[in-house]
Amino acid sequence: MKSIKNFVAVAALSVMSFGAFAQSVTASSSTIDGAEAKIAAQAHQAGASYKITEATVNNVVHMTAELSK
C-alpha cells in the first residue's frame, strides 16, 4: 500500500512540473539568425526562456522551440 501511495505521489508531481508551463512555438525566416530572433521575441513576450528543438533549412528556415518558465 505504501509503494502505491509513493507511486501516485511521484506521478502527480511529475505531471505538475511538466504541465506548469510548456509551450511550443515556431518561426520562419530567410536566415537562421532571423528565425532565432523571432523565437527569442516570442519567448521574451511570454516571459520565458527557450530551447530550440528543431530547425529545417530549405528555401527558408523553419524553427521550432519549447518555451519554459
Automatic annotation (TrEMBL):
It comes from the Bacteria. Keywords: Signal. Residues 24-67 form the YdgH/BhsA/McbA-like domain. The keyword Signal applies. SUPFAM superfamilies: YdgH-like. Residues 1-22 form the signal peptide. The keyword Signal applies. Pfam families: YdgH_BhsA-like. Coiled coil: none annotated. InterPro entries: Dodecin-like (IPR025543), YdgH-like_sf (IPR036275), YdgH/BhsA/McbA-like_dom (IPR010854). Transmembrane segments: none annotated. This is DUF1471 domain-containing protein. It comes from Phytobacter palmae.
